[in-house]
Design a protein that fits this description.
The chain is an alpha/beta fold and 274 residues long. The chain has one domain (3-273): Nucleoside phosphorylase domain (Rossmann fold, 3-Layer(aba) Sandwich). 33% of the residues lie in helices and 25% in strands. It has 8 helices and 9 strands. It has helices at 5-20, 37-40, 87-90, 94-105, 165-177, 198-206, 217-225, 250-273; strands spanning 27-31, 43-49, 67-73, 76-82, 110-119, 129-138, 182-190, 211-213, 229-239. The chain has a 5-stranded mixed beta barrel. The mean pLDDT is 93. The chain binds hypoxanthine (HPA).
Length: 274
Amino acid sequence: MNQTHKQNVESARNIISGKIGALKPKTAIILGSGLGGLADKMSNAVIIPYQDLPGFPVLTVPGHTGEVIAGKLNGIDVISLKGRQHFYETGDAYPLKTMIRTCAALGVETLFLSNAAGSLQPQIRVGELMAISDHINYMGFNPLVGPNDDDFGPRFVPLSEAWDPELNKKLKAAAKKHGISLHEGVYIAFRGPSFETAAEIRMAQKMGASAVGMSSVPDCIIARHCGLKVVGCSCITNMGEGLSDEKLSHEHTLANAKRAAVNFEKLVMEFLAS
Ligand code: HPA
């Protein structure tokens, strides 16, 4: 039987809450490319493959496993979404909406977004982290296009303080405590899947962006629509095209995300506990 979107969200919520027992996560984390290692650090982990959850994505990109993993990180209940579907895979934001709205239906209040990104500033180097203070949606697409789902949020969503300033402060304090270098800046999302040209990177710099990627912006918009607070961190895997001699590839992104992952994991653990 074909279910409505609301029915998918309710079914997914019921399946997850039936499996996670006493866990009551208030934070959900979407783990970006190459950053799934954080899920291995969870204790009491309950793993639910996306294919068991109606309306969740079917993943196609290597390095993205599709699992909901609930458990404890640093003693705090969390739910992590390991693997997401990028807009460039299908041109459809439906599965991402199901994922994020299911988290909200479970009682989650904060969505932590992470991604692998290219740097647009020479002082933000490969292997380093950047707290996302705001975004530029350069995807030529908004996930809320189409009839509004009134069950989840309003037609017109303000994006003032879309990336929550208080949570951003908390993230910076967590970094300071562990001596982790955490830059801060605007994330610009292109639709992908091709990387940007050098001219596009120069344009993005002029627009005021500090990091570039192909995700997280739709996630942020869907989350704000259904009332979740959003905080986020980019792991810098490369310099934007034209800013260095390195050849960009997905393998390169994954390898360098692993370099940034050590500090990323420390940062998230401290953020959750503080
Ligand atoms: N551009 C777009 N997406 C990315 C990049 C980049 O340079 N690095 C990692 N994801």
